Amino acid sequence: MLTVLEPEGLYPDTALEQEILGPGVRVIRGGGRGGVEELPDSLCAEADGLFIFRHWLPGSQLHRFPKLKAVVRMGVGYDRLDRPALAARGVKVCNVPDYGTTEVADHAMALALTLRRGIALHHDLQRADPPAPWQYLETPLVQRAETQNFGILGLGRIGTAVALRAKAFGFRVVFFDPFLPNGVDRALGIRRVRGLEELLAQSDVLSIHTPLTRHTRGLLDEAALRRLPRGAVLVNTARGPILDLDGLAACLRDGQLAGAGLDVLPEEPPKEPVHPLLAAYRAREPWLTGRLIVTPHSAFHTPQAFEDIRRKSAETMRDVLVEGRNTNVIAADAD
């Protein structure tokens, strides 16, 4: 009999997983809520399959899993897994790329519109003591959508969903993605540019939708952000380490960027002492009033999306571990 571990205890039972995986698989829930390090060696020694959601799986822990054959990352990104170490042991690594697409796209648009319409700004000002006057405010944040280029970095499932939403709101949508074939722009009725610098130079709003790889880590540093038009808005619902927070802080402080919406941070959850930008945000320093929105990596979440994660993760584990398929398997040499 095969054994699959779900160490984080995400759901109240294992009934759905057991139904999908079948009678030849034993599903064990919990035992490592704080991390895989908490799992007893005896349990690790039995695991043929492992679900990973919030935890990290470093190579230093793999010797405790001598039977491990498949790891399913219960999400799109797989930077929490030591893929070279897993590949060296012949362990298949999978993700779940097709959940939460609409939620993340909605969230990215909500952040962009909340900033560009001055909603966060007026919200902050109207609850101040004393409240601001009952009138509009002239600010670089507030601009008409149809006068703005909405830049998308990475046109995968989520990037495409954002492009369609931005287009519906009247933005002029432009994207950069070197991995897509010719003609995608024509199919969607949006514009494509050939390089990152060209995208940055044109993006009044920039929404990040690229995966975190060795090539995209630190991709948007201060120099890159200063290529955006002055007064631009930046949204990141992808991965925190793609964006340099020092550069973001500098560009917000001097007005190069009018605003930013972040659902992800380089360190999650943030630990004390937190980055100075996050500290200023939490302290409600006046220079950030209405200009920075932070959400706790929650863009993916609805009750429906959380159920999708559960079902699709179990289906992927069944396909790979039980049936020997390659559903959602990440190639060992993938970036």
From TrEMBL:
Q: Which UniProt keywords apply?
A: Oxidoreductase
Q: GO annotations under biological process?
A: regulation of transcription by RNA polymerase II
Q: Which Pfam families match?
A: 2-Hacid_dh, 2-Hacid_dh_C
Please indicate if the UniProt record lists Ligase as a keyword. Answer: no
The residues covered by the D-isomer specific 2-hydroxyacid dehydrogenase NAD-binding domain are 109-299
The cross-references to Gene3D superfamilies, in alphabetical order and at most eight, read: NAD(P)-binding Rossmann-like Domain
Q: Where are the transmembrane segments?
A: none
Q: Which family does it belong to?
A: Belongs to the D-isomer specific 2-hydroxyacid dehydrogenase family.
Xref: PANTHER family: C-TERMINAL-BINDING PROTEIN
Q: State the protein's name.
A: C-terminal binding protein
Tell me what organism the protein belongs to.
Teichococcus coralli
